[in-house]
Amino acid sequence: MDIKEIRERIDKIDDELSRLFKERMNSAAEVAAFKKECGKAVFDPARERDIINRVTEGEDPETEGYTKALFLTLLDLSRSYQKKLIGGRSKLAEKIEAVTSQPPRDFPKRAVVACQGVEGAYSQLACEKLFEYPSIMYFSNFEGVFNAVERGLCKYGILPVENSSAGSVNAVYDLMNKYSFFITAGVKLFVDHTLLAPEGSSVSDIREIFSHEQAIGQCSNFINGLKNVKVTVCENTAAAAKMVAQSGRTDVAAIGSRDCAELYGLRVVDSGIQNTDNNYTRFICISKELEIYPGASKTSIMMTLPHKPGSLYHTIARFSALGLNLTKLESRPIAGSNFEFMFYFDVDASVYSPELRTLISELENDGEQFAYLGSYVEKQ
Questions:
Q1: Tens of pLDDT along 172-188?
Q2: What are phi and psi of 228, to 5 degrees?
């Protein structure tokens, strides 16, 4: 038998599978109608366990695992379809609907905003890209920004979450599990790193470079090309520039924004030193209260999952089943736990999408720990 004949046979099997799948989903719809009338829960673990045991009993050991995976996916799809037919939303989905049903309002032009670092920090540049007239309060670390928003010292806070070349800002993701907040906006900022040194210094004079760990990673190729240069990590690029300016030394430099040169009386001795010209950092704007503005097309959520095989796979399958585009998946260990992880998801979907609200209702009800972080517009 040649490959053409084998594929023709597979096509016939696929057609039959498709017909049977439709028939099964129609039957699932009848079950959903019964459960709705009787007030029964969609998820019936005993029934699903019986199905898995029945279809895998006597199965060839080589294909037993594949059969289980197939039917677990089938049960996930059936459960999702039943929930969609039964309707009803979680309290969170109702809260989102209540916020989005209010009269549209524009993102504020003026606000008191918390930023990490000092004047000239990239967080400040991101803040000024979002707000026309911000009153900025600076904090020495990311936790200070979260804390200021939670305590009401600042209406909003600006935090970096991801760089296109250096990856996620893990310190921020770790703090997300500690504080209660919502993301109200996002902004993508082009980061053009410069080497800043005191007047009269040149690249050959530099023996120590100060900067934030993310900036150091983004400029690793340039740094590796220098000889006998010590690298010192600081809490912020602007703080590094300020430190160099106040050091009284001529053999030190900072990696930071061009704005810091004028602010701190330094000279740009080299520019565009990042590893790639396509160097962008994503920032989020957080608030204590849920705020959703017109055009919100990105949603962020975080949740823990059962510590068993297939948990993440079956969660991701829900995004696919509802036709939702998952654009980011991040996992971070939970401090003090036995190898438990918090998962962070970014989804490209309009906040008005019924599919998104269905997903939120399902995950809120099924997740061990679930938090909706917000729906927002990400400014380019």
A1: 999 998 999 999 999 99
A2: 55, 45
